Amino acid sequence: MVSRRWFPTPREQLVFVVITVVLALSLWTSHRIHWKTRLGTGGWSLTSRRHATSDVFNSTLGFERVFAIGLPERSDKRDALTLMAALTGFKLSWINGVAGESVPNKALPFGWDRPAMPETNLGSWRGHINAMRHIVASGLTSALVMEDDMDWDTHLKSQLSDFASAATSLQEGFYHNQSLASPSPYGQHWDMLWIGSCATTFDEHLPLDLQLPEDQQDSRKMLIANDVTVPPGTHITGNASFSWTEYAPQTRIVYVPGDNICSFAYALSAAGARKALQYMGLEGQHKAFDNHLSDLCRLRVNGMRCVSVVPSLFVHHRPRGRVSRDSDISGGDGSKDDVREVGFTENVLYSTRLNLQNLVRGMEPERQWED
Fold it and tell me: DNA-binding: present as a keyword of the record (predicted)?
């Protein structure tokens, strides 16, 4: 009996080649995002290249709307933020900020000590609550909320794509009794994505959290490796509880937040906006808005499920000019003060604000730091 040798058909050869290429690409990208727990690290994959068609790259950054909160009279900030958003490919809608003096005593949140707290803090609280109420009243599935003095990297959408992959993976440890009403590139089981803050303390570094039962502690992290938009370690600030020497250069950390400071930018799902409005608006307020927002996440009030990132993707910009113009919460009226000759933004390597002239000319953005 003569045996016959098998020769693949051209179609079978093509299928084999395609499968080989797909497997090779998967292995090639596997170094980009890694899972980190108390037990160490393990391999994980997914990169922005695999999300090139994701909704993260649309005109609202993968959310239904993008809002900026700002006082109407700060036209300088609106000019800057509007131009920055246009040049980096997304659309902003504005929510008017509130002067604290305009909030009557009858509308004060329970526990607010008006004589002891600055009126600007009260106005900040009311402006953010108005944003939350608008999300709820409009029935939005999700929205990103930022303050009007923000800056971000010119590569924001690619950063958000990597963040979306890591954030989705972290949600595997959340309870899944509430899913987003519509598909989100950031996962289906989140209430808040806190992507703009100025200081970070991880859960495992908070004494109060360490006293909780272990099943109530959550120190999980995802490490985004080889992120070329992460500044050199000497130029990263705001890591309140750890040193960047513990991590490889060009590492960005996505984590379940312990204690964050500064409400620079955060996204809320429909359920998240309702939970936040109930706690932040109706349950009382006896501290600054960002501290209370941190409690909302850290204490998991109303079952709140939060994800954060460091270095943050949105950071307060300090422009050239009078220093007192920086903030509408702290500082004077901007009429007299020290003058800053060169503007800067912490933790953002390719600053959109500092590259505005390059971007409007169609030129490549420049780094803030070369070391």
Answer: no
